[in-house]
Amino acid sequence: MSFSYYGELCTEVYDLTKKIGHSFGGDVEYYRDRLQSCNGKILEAMAGSGRVIIPLLESGLRVDGVDSSPEMLASCRQRCDERGLLVNLFEAKLQELSLPDKYEAIIIPGGSFLLIEQRDESIAALKRLYDQLEPGGRLLLDIFLPKSLEFEKGKVGTSTYHFPNGDTITMESKRVEVNMFEQYTISYFKYEKWREGKLLQTELQRFALRWYGIEEFRLVLESVGFTDVVISADFDYGKQPTNKSKSYVYEAVKKS
Fold this sequence. Notes:
Elements: E1 2-4, H1 8-17, H2 27-35, E2 42-45, H3 53-58, E3 63-67, H4 70-82, E4 89-91, E5 103-108, H5 119-132, E6 133-143, E7 156-162, E8 168-179, E9 184-195, E10 198-210, H6 214-224, E11 227-233, E12 248-253
C-alpha cells in the first residue's frame, strides 16, 4: 500500500469522473470568459490532469500549468498530446514556486487552493503567486465553505468506479480529524484496483481540506499585497455573495 496525495489510482478516478471541460457550477466558462482579454501568458496553478487548462488552450489562450502531482501532470500531458496542444507543465508545490516567466493572470479553479493544509504554507503560496505575476497582473481563484456534514469526525463513505476496460476501483473514505479552531479537516481515502476479481493495486490518500471565512480570505489576500479584491458568488462576476452561495470567486490585482 502506498501513501499518496494525488497518486495513480486517484488520478484514474479523477479522469473518469471529472472529464476535460467538466464544469463545477460554471467555473470553466467563468475563467475562460474572464481571461479572454489577456494578451500575455496565463498560469493555471494546481492544474491537475487538464479539466480546465485544456479548454482554455483550445480557446486560443496561452496557458502554462503547474501541479505537485507527477501522476496528474502525466495525465494532463498525455491528454494535451492527444489533442495536438503544446503546453508547458511544471511540477512544483505552490509554496516553493519559482518559474522562469511572469504571468498576466494566474488561476486556481475547483477550490483547489483549500487543499493546502497549513495556513502558513497557504500564505507562502500566495506570496509566491504574487511574485510570479506581472505588475498589474490578476489572481483568480475560487473557494467554498464546507458543508455541516463535513465536520463529522468518523464519517465514512464508499464508492465504486467502473472503467471501460473492465477494471474496477473501489474507494473507502473516513474522516479522521476535524479541527474547528484551526479550520481544517483530514480524511483518508483508500483506493483498491480490481481486475477479474483480483486485487492489482492499493493506494492510500491523505486528504486535508482547509477553509476560510469569506471576508477573512479577502484580508489574507490584502495582507500579501493584492489590491482591488472583487468577490463574486457562484461564478457570476460581481454578484454579491450570500449565505446561500455555493462558491466564492476572488479576483485580486498585483500593484503596478
